Amino acid sequence: MEEFIIKFSESIVSQNIILSYVFFFISQTLQVLFPPYPGDMVLIIEGYLSEVARINVILVIFNAIIATFLSSIILYTLGYKKGHKIIDFKIIKKLFETDKVLKLNRLFKKFGGIVIIVSKFIPGLYSITILSAGIFRVRKNIAYTAIFIITSIHNLGLIILGKVLGENWTYIFRKIKIYNRQILMLIIPIIIIYFIIIQIKKKIFN
Q1: Within 10 A of 128 (CB to CB), how many other CB atoms are there?
Q2: Within the chain, how many helices (H) and strands (E) appear?
Q3: I need a surface site. Which of 39, 62, 67, 206 has the fewest CB within 10 A?
């Protein structure tokens, strides 16, 4: 699938710039609504192609941010309107790890919109987090702000990375795959340490 997307992206860019923006927009939408889609890879490719094909990188960045933001809002709204019932939909169960929904609710109560921001850095968690934010009625202004912040940082970072690295982008993508496997190993001890600190503070000041 990844090889096909790479060749398809290069083919579209070489033939029609307008279609390139349409394809990139659809790609970032699919990354949110269809999590198996390798959207991060496409973001890096966008940066790379903006350099070699002389595409306006500012438009590429805005296009990616808008696509990710709007598709995230769609997912949030879907959860907001359908509530817990949406978890039982077959297509939702196939696309998202619905077993994490209740755990995410506890995190929302403690940390609010920060959960959305952090979820973007944990493989496979962002989309179900956005859906859960809607299900548990996380305030819209908090959810929307968190979505916009992390979408802007994440998309901008990967596109610029692809542009700067040029043809070396494949090396970084391989590193991102390794990072995706290792980040869970790093984040678990951080969470444990955090809760230990909280418990110590409670014992000292209560």
Answers
A1: 24
A2: 10, 0
A3: 206
Nearest to 20 by CA among 80, 28, 206, 120: 28
Q: Inter-axis angle of helices 39-52 and 57-82, to 10 degrees?
A: 160
Q: How far apart are CA 89 and CA 21, in angstroms?
A: 32
**By C-alpha distance, which of 53, 20, 26 is closest to 167?**
53
Confirm whether pTM is higher than 0.85.
no
Name the token pair of 152: 């802007």
Per residue in 67-90, pLDDT tens?
A: 999 999 999 999 999 887 877 777
DSSP-derived 3-state class of residue 133: helix
Geometric angle at alpha carbon 90, from 118 and 116, rounded to 5°: 10
CA dist list (Å): 61 to 36, 41, 65, 172: 22, 14, 6, 19
d(CA 67, CA 25): 5
What is the residue-level pLDDT of the chain in tens, covering all 206 positions?
A: 556 666 666 676 667 778 888 888 998 999 898 877 777 778 888 888 877 777 888 999 999 999 999 999 999 999 999 887 877 777 676 666 667 777 788 888 888 888 898 888 777 789 889 999 998 899 999 999 999 999 999 999 888 888 887 666 566 556 555 555 555 555 555 555 555 555 545 554 45
Least Cα distance to 113 among 87, 144, 159, 92 occurs for 144
Distance in angstroms between the alpha carbons of the first and the last residue of the chain: 56
